[in-house]
Amino acid sequence: MAQVANASQRLHMTCLIDTHAHLDASEFDADRTSVHQRARAAGVVNCVIPAVEAANFDTVRALAHAQRDAYALGIHPLYTPQATAADLAQLDDALRTHRADPHLVAVGEIGLDGFVPKLNTPDALAKQQLFYTAQLKLAQQHQLPVILHVRRSADLLLKSLRDTPVVGSITHAFNGSLQQAQAFIALGFKLGFGGALTYDRALQLRRLATELPLSAIVLETDAPDIPPHWLYTTAEQRAAGQPQGRNEPAELARIAQVLADLRGISIEALAQATCANAREALPRLQ
Ligand SMILES: [Zn+2]
Description:
Elements: H1 2-13, E1 16-18, H2 32-41, E2 44-50, H3 57-67, E3 70-73, H4 85-97, E4 104-113, H5 122-141, E5 146-151, H6 154-163, E6 170-172, H7 178-186, E7 190-193, H8 203-211, E8 217-219, H9 235-239, H10 252-263, H11 267-281
Parallel strand pairs: 1-2, 2-3, 3-4, 4-5, 5-6, 6-7, 7-8
Helix pairs in contact: 4-5, 10-11
Bound molecules: zinc ion.
């Protein structure tokens, strides 16, 4: 009972939205319910669970419903090598079938990855681009925002967005230049920040997260990935058999505190603003 009271007290204090959490990942198979409970106890009122391929559309939808979270449907750039035209047709179908589902908040995770070498051969890059633009068009047709994966690909992503504009959306795990950030903001995007800014050495990212207008920022964990520094396991520790730390939505409270401190504002002010921003970018988020 004491624990429940404590959790609800904190819920009144802060409203945090994790705009990017892969809660369907196998890393959570053993304790998904506890992960969910810890998130709510930490003030995380909603998580957005993005799909990565047609094969997990049903899984993320069922999970979002079961946990009263939100979901997005899309084909992630890392999954484009094995994706086919039938997957795009399936996405179109699913967006139509579930258009009245209030838990469906965006098309995602889509985008371009300019980092993974095997995805950046001319053929693989062309395929990434094809799936990205096709999914932008689907988002446009179904009048949904998008959740973008950006990794050394901001300029290419922006170029397609100018040809195929979508309604205000989110660029997740943003780590580009100030100029690129401003270009996304000019197109009505919010930028997602998470565990990466908890590292003292992430100077450029920290400066960006501090100097950008608060109205442009949303919070995310990218769980189970991008562990904050307090969960990070070094290469030496991993060589000695310690696994990499697993990130989870409950960590968002401490991540938010780091950003609030960097910006010199209270956690309540940051939480309130970033929640409003998330709901502006993803209007179906309740
Ligand atoms: Zn992701």
